[in-house]
Amino acid sequence: MKRIAVLGSTGSIGTSCLDVVEAHSDQVSALGMTAHSRWEQLAEQSRQFAPQFVVIADESLRNSIDRSQFQPGTEIDFGPEAVARLAAHPDVDVVVSGIVGAAGLKSSLAALEAGKTVALANKETLVVAGPLVLEAARRNNSQLIPVDSEHSAVFQALQCGKDREVRRVILTASGGPFRTRSAEDLANVTPAMALDHPTWDMGPKITIDSATMMNKALEIIEARWLFDLDADKIDVVVHPQSIVHSMVEFVDGSVMAQLSPPDMRLPIQYALTYPERIDGISPQLDLTTAFNLEFFPPDYDRFPALKLGFEVAQRGGTCGAVLNAANEVAVARFLDGDLTFQEIPQVCREILSAHHFSPTPTLDELTRLDRWAREETKRWKSCSSV
Ligand SMILES: NC(=O)C1=CN([C@@H]2O[C@H](COP(=O)(O)OP(=O)(O)OC[C@H]3O[C@@H](n4cnc5c(N)ncnc54)[C@H](OP(=O)(O)O)[C@@H]3O)[C@@H](O)[C@H]2O)C=CC1
Ligand SMILES: CC(=O)[C@@H](O)[C@H](O)COP(=O)(O)O
Ligand SMILES: [Mn+2]
Questions:
Q1: Which of 81, 119, 226, 385 is the most exposed place for a label (fewest CB within 10 A)?
Q2: What per-residue confidence (pLDDT) applies to 208?
């Protein structure tokens, strides 16, 4: 029995992960679960899965939750330190890192420092602190298995050759809800329009990232660190159907791809059972009816976030932490109606250019810069009244 800790169990990744646990309860059990503030949903999950531990990251809820709603016997703890303690708990085999944003870094690191296998959905962990995270994994002999659909696809395709035989990695991008919109039209898109992803059902932050294609930028950086690739070995291709989840081209010209209908339960399950494969619960690819798989080059003018991804992947150092923090705040401001859609990549570029670059930052330096970038992005004046 694999005992897992599901960090962010109330989110899109978390609930998909619990579907996998439910379907394979003979092989996987949830020893612990965490949420930020949706404690009632967490309480319901505790009644269904009877974990030993639950953690509510929002410390301020300590005295206001109704403890009687939780499964009797389940220990309830509060705050980010408690999330990190759960991630490092001796009885946990695999940590599913499904918290959104840089808030997921601390617990991903705690798990790796404790020698755990980390099923990594929280791409921000690598975007913010890639080299430090990989060094922690190396030092503690811990395994980092990608959950992000593209990186899971690359991870699977890489098993067809040797690292030195890789010519390039091709990340697919759905293109988001605005794939075919003109630049003029993009000026007027609303949060509701941006939250309507054509192929994936995900949390709000990544859904907006997908619409700006900042998600792909973050994924370029994630791939750069995870697979130790130079930025010029990473390409992006727009694939609106989200069936080919990414590809690896080897030096002989062979391209290996991983295909499946868009459903995160597959890469989550694979990360939990790797190196084994077991019966899946996500829909199968139906090849009995005709369908098209399309591929287009990305449009860097309409989606300038993409260029930021390549630049940051190339420069490394403090750039990932700054880009990520600026983007988190910019997305929140866009959702609040306080920034236009096109101002998201604009403010990110400006904050990135204004920061004091360091090539080999410590975790403390990254934390300080993260705070600085958030403050600057909050203060940044929107040019349009929205
Ligand atoms: N959704 C998807 O299909 C995919 C997601 N990812 C990545 O996975 C991660 C999670 O995404 P997703 O599931 O969509 O996000 P959601 O917004 O759906 O869920 C986020 C989860 O994190 C918790 N959380 C939020 N803020 C904090 C915090 N400060 N401290 C601790 N916990 C917190 C939330 O708790 P609460 O509910 O209480 O707010 C919730 O459980 C992201 O990094 C995303 O990029 C990658 C590939 C696909
Ligand atoms: C499911 C997943 O992995 C997301 O990161 C997804 O890829 C987002 O879609 P985009 O390709 O539109 O960014
Ligand atoms: Mn992805």
A1: 385
A2: 98
For residues 20-40, give the mean pLDDT. Answer: 98
pLDDT at position 383, please? 80
Ligand closest to CA 198: 2
144 and 222 Cβ atoms separated by less than 8 Å: no
Domains and CATH numbers, the chain: 2-146 (3.40.50.720), 151-262+289-316 (no CATH)
Concatenating the DSSP letter of every residue in 183-195 gives HHHHTT--HHHHT
- Pick from 9, 95, 97, 99 the residue to mutate for probing ligand 1's pocket: most ligand atoms within 8 Å of its CB: 99
Averaged over 164-176, what is the pLDDT?
98
Residue of 16, 33, 56, 100 best suited for mutating to test ligand 1, as the one with most atoms within 8 Å of CB: 100
Ligand 2 lined by 198 (C-beta under 6 Å): no
Nearest CA to ligand 2 atom 5: 148
- Predicted pLDDT of residue 179: 98
Mean pLDDT score, 122-147: 98
CB-ligand 1 contact for 36 (6 Å cutoff):
yes
ipTM for the whole complex: 0.99
Identify which of 129, 156, 72, 137 has the alpha carbon closest to the alpha carbon of residue 322.
Answer: 129
Strand ordering across the sheet containing 166-173: 234-238, 166-173, 244-250, 255-259
Q: pTM for the whole thing?
A: 0.98
CB of 149 closer than 6 angstroms to any ligand 2 atom = yes
Q: Which of the four pLDDT bands, split at 50, 70 and 90, describes residue 19?
A: very high
Ligand 3 center from residue 338 Cα (angstroms):
26
Ligand 2 atom with the shortest distance to the CA of 172: 11
